[in-house]
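Notes, p. 3: input format for complexes.
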Amino acid sequence: MAQQITPPDELWWLTFNQFLIGALVLGTFVSIVFAYFAIRYWEKKVKPNEAEVVLGPGRVAPGTSKIGWTRYTLVVTGIIVTLLILATFPRTDYVEASPPETDLVIWVTAFQFGWEFEYPNGKKVVNTLVLPTDTVVEFKVVSRDVFHAFGIPEIKGAKIDAIPGILNSLWVKTPSEPGELNVVCYELCGVGHSLMVGKIKVVPPDEFQAFLQST
Ligand code: CUA
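Output follows (215 residues plus dinuclear copper ion):
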């Protein structure tokens, strides 16, 4: 079993949290600058007739056209946004590629209205998939009829289109404790769309092996 790899959902949480922190830092900085100017220029009033002459569209009042603060704001924004983007690219590549180590490949065929799952040994099940705990699983996703989208709501980022004639793949690491996950269709695909739900039963590896060998 693979232990060293970082599953996509953990990477998504990490990325989300970093963006959140970046947004908070930026928001705080901008709010402070905003408040500073609001207080500093509170009392200054432009005489009505002077305003008419000086303040037209695209003009600023004389003596206020300093860009010092604007420059700092742009620099701070630029640094934070650039760092976040640079951090995101390799992660996206990592998630979109096949997993560094795959323990199990499952073929997923979407149809109106359900899911067919096929194991490496040819065993097929419909709507209820059994998977072992703590395992890297790659889903190869196709559709038999119309556009669907395969997703596991409990696992962040586990969602991919199921398109006729196109092979999409998605990988996850199953939970380390036995339990149950949901499978849902994320794309309106007909009158039975909302009924297109399945289950993933996560069981201990020995139980999984027994299941796999059963007919
Ligand atoms: Cu299949 Cu919605």
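The radius of gyration is 27 Å.
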